[in-house]
C-alpha cells in the first residue's frame, strides 16, 4: 500500500517543526532543563574520556558515557555546538519511521496509513522534541530502544534464539548504557524470555545478557553513582506520581475505547466496583503521606493541578484513573501487570520527571503490552486523529509553559 499524500505532508510538516524548534531554542519539556543539561555536559562531549566535575558532582557518576562518546565523534567532525544539535535534530527524523516499521510488524492486518499516522505522534511529544533539539542522551536512547523494539516485533511470535533476539538484546544493552531507566523494560524482557523460551534457551539468553552487562558492571564498581538513582523509600510519592504520569497517555486511549466500542458502553460494570473502591482508598492512603516537591518534576498533571486549582485534587484523580486503567490492562493479560509494576516501582525516586516515561511508555503500550485495546483503536483513522489532537494540545501547553516559564514561577 502506498502511503497517502496527507501522511507524507504531515511527516514533512512535523519534521519542519523540529528545525523551527531548533532555530528558536525550544525546550518544551522542562522550561530550560534540556538546555541546562546540554550546556553542563558539553565538556563531556568535547572530551568524553575525562572525568568532569560540576559543583562537586561527578557527571560520570550519574550517567553512562556511551552517548557522550558518540556525540564527541560527531562534534570532532563538525566542531560546532549548533551543528551538533542540527545533526541530532536531523537523525531524530528516523524515529517515527522505525516506530512505523515496528507497528507494521506487529499489526499485519491494520491499514498501513493508519499505522503511519500513529507513528507521527512521536514528533509531538515534548521530551522527544527537546531531546532531539538539544542533542540529549534521551534521543540516543530512544533510537536504540526503537531498534530493540523493531527486533522484538520481528522475534515476538517466533520465541526461539535467532538473530532477531540477539539484535534485541544488543540494542537494549545500548539503550541502557545510554539512559539507565531503560533497564526497566529490559527487566521485563528478561521476564518475558523466561515465560516464552525453553529453559535451555533461557539460560543461553541469560548468559548473553550477562556478557553484555559486564562493561556496565565494571563501570558501576568504579562509579557506584551509576546504580539507578531512582531507588528510595518515598514510595507514597513516586507511586502516585508514576500512576498519574501514566494516565496522561492512557486517558485518551480508554476514552476512545469506551465511546467507539458499543459492547463497552453496554457492559455491566459491577465487577469494577471492588477495584474502584480499593484504588480509591489506595490513593487516599498515599495522599495522606504525600510529601513531593512538585517544583522538581512530578509530571504534567501535578503541575496542571497546582496551576489551575491551587491544590492536588486533579493530580490525585489522575493517579486514581491510572490505577483503574492498569487494573483493566492486567485483566487482559498478567504480563501487563508485571510490566506496569516494573515501571511504577522502578521509578521510585525523590524526583520523577515526565521525560522518564516519554515516549517510552507510549511505545511500550502499542508494541509490548498485550491488549485488544490497541487493535480496536487502530481500526479507525478518526481514532488516530483524536490522539493526534490530544497530544497537540499537550504540546501546546508545554510550549506555553516553555515561553512563559509558568512552572518555574510556582
Task: Walk me through this protein's architecture.
The chain has helices at residues 5-24, 33-46, 66-78, 81-91, 95-106, 112-119, 126-133, 137-155, 163-178, 183-196, 199-222, 235-260, 262-265, 273-288, 300-309, 313-332, 334-346, 360-367, 372-377, 381-404, and strands at residues 53-54, 57-58. With 410 residues, it is mainly α. It folds into 2 domains: 5-228 and 392-409, no CATH class; 235-351, no CATH class. It has a two-stranded antiparallel sheet. The longest helix is centred in the middle third of the chain and has 26 residues, at 235-260. 42% of the residues are buried. Mean pLDDT is 88; it is low at 51-61 and 229-233.
Task: Please report the total strand number as a whole number.
Answer: 2
Main β-sheet: number of strands, strand sense, barrel status? 2 strands, antiparallel
Task: Report mean pLDDT, rounded to a whole number.
Answer: 88
Radius of gyration: 21 Å
User: Which stretches are poorly predicted, pLDDT < 50 over at least 5 residues?
Assistant: 51-61, 229-233
Spatially, the strands of the biggest sheet line up as 1-2
Number of domains: 2
Structural class: mainly alpha
Q: Tally the helices: what do you get?
A: 20
Percent of residues in helical segments? 55-70%
User: What is the approximate shape?
Assistant: globular
Question: From N to C, what is the helix and strand string?
Answer: HHEEHHHHHHHHHHHHHHHHHH
Strand content: under 5%
- Termini distance? 50 Å
Amino acid at each position: 500500500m502506498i502511503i497517502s499524500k496527507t501522511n507524507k505532508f504531515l511527516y514533512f510538516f512535523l519534521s519542519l517543526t523540529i528545525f523551527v524548534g531548533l532555530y528558536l531554542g525550544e525546550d518544551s519539556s522542562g522550561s530550560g532543563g534540556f538546555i541546562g543539561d546540554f550546556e553542563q555536559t558539553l565538556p563531556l562531549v568535547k572530551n568524553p574520556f575525562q572525568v568532569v566535575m560540576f559543583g562537586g558532582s561527578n557527571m560520570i557518576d550519574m550517567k553512562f558515557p556511551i552517548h557522550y562518546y558518540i556525540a564527541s565523534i560527531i562534534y570532532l567532525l563538525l566542531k560546532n555546538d549548533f551543528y551538533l544539535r542540527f545533526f541530532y535534530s536531523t537523525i531524530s527524523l528516523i524515529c517515527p519511521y522505525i516506530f512505523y516499521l515496528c507497528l507494521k510488524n506487529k499489526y499485519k492486518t491494520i491499514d498501513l496509513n493508519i499505522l503511519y499516522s500513529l507513528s507521527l505522534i512521536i514528533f509531538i511529544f515534548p521530551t522527544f522534541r527537546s531531546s532531539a533539539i538539544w542533542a540529549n542522551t534521551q534521543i540516543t536512547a530512544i533510537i536504540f530502544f526503537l531498534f530493540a523494539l523493531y527486533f522484538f516485533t520481528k522475534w515476538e511470535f517466533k520465541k526461539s534464539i535467532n538473530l532477531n533476539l540477539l539484535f534485541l538484546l544488543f540494542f537494549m544493552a545500548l539503550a541502557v548504557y545510554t539512559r539507565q531507566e531503560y533497564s526497566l523494560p529490559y527487566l521485563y524482557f528478561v521476564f518475558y524470555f523466561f515465560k516464552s523460551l525453553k529453559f535451555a534457551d533461557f539460560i543461553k539468553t541469560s548468559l548473553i545478557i550477562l556478557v553484555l552487562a559486564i562493561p556496565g558492571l565494571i563501570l558501576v564498581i568504579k562509579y557506584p553513582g551509576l546504580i539507578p538513582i531512582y531507588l528510595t523509600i518515598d514510595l507514597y510519592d513516586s507511586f502516585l506520581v508514576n500512576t498519574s504520569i501514566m494516565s496522561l497517555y492512557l486517558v485518551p486511549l480508554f476514552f476512545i475505547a469506551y465511546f467507539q466500542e458499543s459492547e463497552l458502553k453496554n457492559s455491566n460494570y459491577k465487577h469494577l466496583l471492588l477495584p474502584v473502591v480499593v484504588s480509591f482508598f489506595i490513593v487516599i492512603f498515599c495522599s495522606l503521606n504525600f510529601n513531593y516537591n512538585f517544583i522538581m518534576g512530578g509530571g504534567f498533571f501535578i503541575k496542571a493541578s497546582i496551576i489551575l486549582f491551587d491544590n492536588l485534587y486533579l493530580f490525585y484523580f489522575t493517579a486514581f484513573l491510572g490505577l483503574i486503567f492498569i487494573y483493566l490492562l492486567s485483566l487482559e493479560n498478567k504480563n501487563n501487570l508485571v510490566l506496569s509494576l516494573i515501571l511504577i516501582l522502578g521509578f521510585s525516586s525523590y524526583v520523577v520527571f515526565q521525560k522518564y516515561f516519554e515516549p517510552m511508555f507510549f511505545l511500550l503500550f502499542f508494541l509490548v503490552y498485550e491488549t485488544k485495546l490497541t487493535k480496536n483503536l487502530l481500526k479507525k483513522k478518526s481514532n488516530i486523529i483524536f490522539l493526534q489532537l490530544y497530544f497537540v494540545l499537550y504540546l501546546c501547553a508545554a510550549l506555553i509553559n516553555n515561553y512563559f516559564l509558568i512552572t518555574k514561577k510556582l
